Amino acid sequence: MDFDCVVVGAGPSGSTAAKILAEQGINVLLIDKAIFPRDKPCGGGLPLRVLQQFPYIKDIGVIETYAYGGYLHPPSLQYKVKIHKTEPIIAMVLRKNFDQELVNIAIENGSEFWDNTSLKNVTVTTENVRMTLNEGTHIDTHLVIGADGFFSTVAQKTGLGSSFHSDATSVVEEFIVKKEIMDEFFTDQRWCHIFSKIHHLSGYGWVFPKQTHLNIGIAEYRLNTENKKKVNKNIKEIFDDFLSFLIKRGIIPEDIKSNALKGGMLPVKPLKKTYSDHVLLCGDAAGFINPVSGEGIYYALASGRLAGLTAGEALQVNDTGERFLSRYEKRWKNDFGKEIKIMLRSTKQWKKTNENVAKLMSKDSKLAELLFSTMTGQKSICELRWKIVYRYLYALMKYSLRGQM
User: What is the pTM (predicted TM-score) of this model?
Assistant: First the structure.
């Protein structure tokens, strides 16, 4: 074999998988179609549990700033939910720097990295995998890890990628803003803004301030039950209207003008199967994302780590067949699968206004903190689910009896 394992896609999931494999002394190649460093459409928010479970990220100089609070704005905009903490609620990164440093870590641990390298075809046999790259180059490997995003070539060519039932469209732009202006508009604690169902979209808009960059975006969720032919929204126009709205409200500086808007597709539901003979999928390629908030970096890192560990075990015992690799799916389901499953039930709420929930949050700080903790990825919904239910019922009864609902 040319390499024991090839990881396709050098985002957070792929770089993490390559790092884990290299640490085990495995001959691993990491490839990506882009020329690095490269940027990626993303809010760039890191849930704090990322730093708890991957502590080395604190030490690589990628954290731009921390946000200590934020505002949640419901569709009516009649009120807002304010959260202010003495400790950070989320860390902010620039994806161009973040992804490059994760690649560097994989290289430092022994991975080989080829950027500007596209995967054209994958042929799986009973013994190995033959990969065809750009310009017709062939590579043979025992195992391939697909970490190549929503339109994963690995998933499609191996028959695993045909069961995406839902998707989200996201557009985002990052503006360079002087630090003193950022401090003026967002304070040195970098308060964030989230607007639910902005301009009647089934989704939300966000404003994420960093050190000297202002990240603004919109995510729209389209469920598989919707007739997509009826969707006739120009998300670019909606983004421009969103910027104008933010300027009129005094939330962002008035000289912010869109000139480099980027977009992409995101999954909101895991694939039915994330492994087969000689193949594992992780990150967006496997459909791992928070289907409510759209946050995917934690799941990318967590699934990349599990894919790397499982692939390493398989290679050490010389068994990269489907039966052995099935332990990977059991692992991610035990780690975060239940959390995603619970969140998927909440996607039905995108068809509702949810004004009462936001109104309760604006009145009950404990309910607001619990919901904000799950929205920002500070804690898993599995950990707080029943606390949220009990607090919601308590607040609903309390304010209904007072005639405030």
Answer: 0.90
